[in-house]
Amino acid sequence: MPPSPPTPAAPKTIADFFTRPAKRLRAAAPAPAASLSTFASDAKRSPEQRRRADTNLALARARRNLRLAESKAKDSGGAAKLEELLVEETWLQALQGELRKPYALELCRFVTQERQHGRLPVYPPQHLVFHALNFTPFDRVKAVIIGQDPYHGPGQAMGLSFSVPEGIKIPSSLGNIFKELEKDLGCTIPLHGNLERWAVQGVLMLNTVLTVREHQANSHAKKGWEQFTDAVIKTISQKKSGLVFLLWGNSAQSKIRHFSKTNQILERLGLSTIDWQL
């Protein structure tokens, strides 16, 4: 189905977006000559050049996190604790202690049991369970796309809502999203469904449930994931301002131009917009 309109968010709900923070940075001490030179060089860049440079830095950071999560999963022999797989420091600070709560420990035992002794594979791969958080640091989040269950076909789930790895057939739901993107902003429909480029620009692509059995939708629902992702949303709502929440699902309406509307909201808040072209 086509995506539903972007829904601005408020601290206690995800219905309204936050107002721009009132505080401004204090004037800094005079910068050394080297810093002034760097600043002058940066000032000569176009907004697009600055956006690309920022995205490249964020991508390098995200890939370091991915390698670290892969290493932890490998070293554990596939039995890593959930708290070991969340490696992005800003989220560890924001969600301090969440994965050590009783419900999360029970969730960890369930997922480990499923992976080691279940009859069916569990998706996504262990190192990608927290891909959404590891790829989009807490301090960079400015839009949130909420999904439901991970894709449950072989090779599809990659830890980002609606996203599939390059080389995997684009699901119909994502295909409809791309059609809306083309109508809204005139973007070229991509040949792949990897949405990591959105993630590194500050789009948190979070499913409400983060694991699933192969070919069994909702098989890991009501096991504790919903409580964890609720904690993520609550933390964002309480600790950040200037956000846009996008809810995509069966009730989606067509012709709502949610990509351009999201950028309009971000512009009004004085935040950099998202380059939606993949």
Molecular structure report:
The chain has one domain (6-18, 53-268): Uracil-DNA Glycosylase, subunit E, CATH 3.40.470. Helix content is 41%, strand content 8%. It contains ten helices and six strands. The protein has a four-stranded mixed beta sheet with strand order 1-6-3-4. The radius of gyration is 19 Å and the shape is globular. Residues 9-40 have low confidence and may be disordered.
Features:
278 residues; alpha/beta; Uracil-DNA Glycosylase, subunit E; two-stranded antiparallel ribbon; 41% helix; 8% strand; Uracil-DNA_glycosylase-like_sf
Could you tell me the CATH topology label: Uracil-DNA Glycosylase, subunit E
Radius of gyration: 19 Å
- The geometry reads as globular
Q: In the residues, how many domains can be counted? A: 1
- Major sheet summary line: 4 strands, mixed
Structural class: alpha/beta
- Report the CATH superfamily: Uracil-DNA glycosylase-like domain
Which range does the strand content fall in? 5-15%
CATH class: Alpha Beta
N-C termini distance: 20 Å
Q: Compute the average pLDDT.
A: 86
CATH architecture: 3-Layer(aba) Sandwich
Please write out the topology:
Elements (H helix, E strand, L loop, with lengths): L5 E3 L24 H11 L3 H29 L6 H4 L3 H6 L7 H16 L4 E2 L7 H5 L7 E5 L24 H14 L10 H4 L3 E5 L4 E2 L11 H15 L4 E4 L10 H11 L10
Parallel strand pairs: 3-4, 3-6
Antiparallel strand pairs: 1-6, 2-5
Catalytic activity: Hydrolyzes single-stranded DNA or mismatched double-stranded DNA and polynucleotides, releasing free uracil
GO biological process, one term: base-excision repair, AP site formation via deaminated base removal
Function: Excises uracil residues from the DNA which can arise as a result of misincorporation of dUMP residues by DNA polymerase or due to deamination of cytosine.
